[in-house]
Amino acid sequence: MAQVQANEAAPHAGPADQHGSMGHLPLPSTVQKRQILWPYLISLLTIHALALLAFIPWLFSWTGVALAVCGLYLFGTLGINLCYHRLLTHRSFACPLWLERFFATIGVCCLQDTPGRWVAIHRFHHQHSDEQEDPHSPLVTFFWGHMGWLLVKNERLNSVATYERYARDVLRDPFYFRLEKHLLWAWVYLAHAVLFYMIGFAIGWAWNGEYMEGVQFGLSLLVWGVFVRTVAVWHITWSVNSVTHMWGYQNYPTGENSRNNFFVGLVSNGEGWHNNHHADQRSAAHGHRWFEFDVTYITIWILQKIGLAWDVIKPSPRLHLHEKPATLGDAIGEP
Ligand SMILES: [Zn+2]
Ligand SMILES: [Zn+2]
What we know:
Blueprint: E1 31-36, H1 38-52, H2 62-89, H3 97-108, H4 115-127, H5 142-146, E2 152-154, H6 160-171, H7 174-180, H8 184-208, H9 211-242, H10 262-267, H11 274-279, H12 295-305, H13 328-331
Antiparallel strand pairs: 1-2
Bound molecules: zinc ion (2 copies).
One zinc ion (ZN) is lined by residues 85, 89-90, 122, 126, 277, 281.
């Protein structure tokens, strides 16, 4: 069976409708919408509920808030954007194996499944963008594209054949293969959450000399630094699947509904320039115009400058931006 590789930029036939609207696309044929994925639904609701504890004043600390904000970059940008997406899925650059695995472990702490599964689903998305078989097109409904697709069984996403075809290169590495086994990835997430609490507890106790001060500080780091941040990174990643396949402007006619969305571009540190990305999937840089600010690419550029990244793929010279630069109205997604 042919394997889909990162360098298959999948120039795809595409759905005819470039300006698709919500509600006109059927669910993927392999979805069984009555089969709820309970572990996913329960984890999703639980982590959202735990994040809501942030509204309890006793669980507040500025250190926790700072960890949540920095965590968006550390876990979301480095773990998901840079590693899961640009490095493992698209092979937009190369880096030392120890660094790749470090970033991947950080990515696992975002509770967005294993690198192998993430890569397989995302490559499949690129090959079938906004067609019926796209695992998470918002042209079904916005909720489906954002998070609904995670909650019901899609046989294709659980088949060995899909992993074989779309993520064989990743799972060839025993490190990634092991993460799939015995829910190791979920244990990694749990371990990092416990670590946040323990460090906070130790510092709080040592600093104030009171046991309960340690408990309070540890819990504030756990709630803000782990749960609030996990939920924020989830919704940012999901917005790339949902919002940027609905609203924004196109620099390139890609034959599906991908868009560059100013808001998602900024909050996701570069992933929201999604039409550029669909047009040129291997490029490490997703921002192609001067105002398409891409913190993830800046990070890759810095890694390259200090010798920790190489073979960084530049935007293809075959691509031609529209002559007329997009207006700000376009950029913020006005119709
Ligand atoms: Zn997409
Ligand atoms: Zn991609």
